[in-house]
Specification:
Maf protein, globular, ITPase-like_fam, EC 3.6.1.9, hydrolase, 24% strand, seven-stranded mixed beta sheet, 201 residues, alpha/beta, hydrolase activity
Length: 201
């Protein structure tokens, strides 16, 4: 049984392109970065901790069949600073001003964990995203759309936020929330082969 440790509809949709059946059990962890923590170390730690938290939660029920947890974390990074989800319009505006007219990185870590076999695999995918200049009027209009309010870096590349994106170098699906190539490679290490899974009638 495969468990997705996320309530994100974007990750659910992306994972659904790779495997036909999986359950969802969101992770509830403290996502505060450590003082001076490197962005790459942070996203890897988040994916790892989410996987362990969900595995621990499910292991409490002795009737639960064997399972593999898939956890992921995405952070927008500019000048080494991690941009989380904006708390309000002012935070959103500050983030989008920071991203306006320049390049930034999107880091997405994926962790697969089989607690029974004590098998864990973790990878981090880094993509470069280039933004055009964004006006304050556009930032205000974008906020009113409701889209930036629960997104890392205050934008969604798969939605209206795409109008700001000049170019992407790396994995588009990783920027959305789950790198399909790397995830399929990890799943194969656990005996789950995406093409076989999706080709079964």
């Amino acid at each position: 049984m495969l468990i997705l440790a996320s309530a994100s509809p974007r990750r659910k949709e992306l994972l659904g392109q790779l495997v036909r059946e999986f359950d969802i059990c969101p992770a509830d962890i403290d996502e505060t970065p450590y003082q001076g923590e490197d962005a790459s170390a942070y996203v890897k730690r988040m994916a790892h901790e989410k996987a362990l938290a969900v595995a621990d939660k499910l292991s409490q029920d002795k009737t639960t069949p064997s399972f593999i947890v898939l956890a992921s974390d995405t952070s927008v990074v500019v000048d080494g600073v991690i941009l989380g989800k904006p708390a309000d319009f002012e935070e959103s505006k500050a983030m989008l001003r920071l991203l306006s007219g320049r390049d930034h990185q999107v880091m997405t870590s994926v962790c697969l964990y089989d607690a029974k076999r004590e098998h864990l695999q973790l990878t981090n995918v880094v993509s470069d995203v280039s933004f055009r200049a964004i006006s304050d009027v556009e930032i205000a209009q974008y906020w009113r759309s409701g889209e930036p309010q629960d997104k890392a870096g205050s934008y969604a590349i798969q939605g209206l936020g795409a109008v700001f994106v000049r170019a992407v170098s790396g994995s588009y699906s990783a920027v959305v929330g789950l790198p399909l190539y790397e995830t399929s490679q990890l799943l194969a290490l656990f005996g789950i082969h995406s093409l076989e899974e999706m080709s079964h009638e």
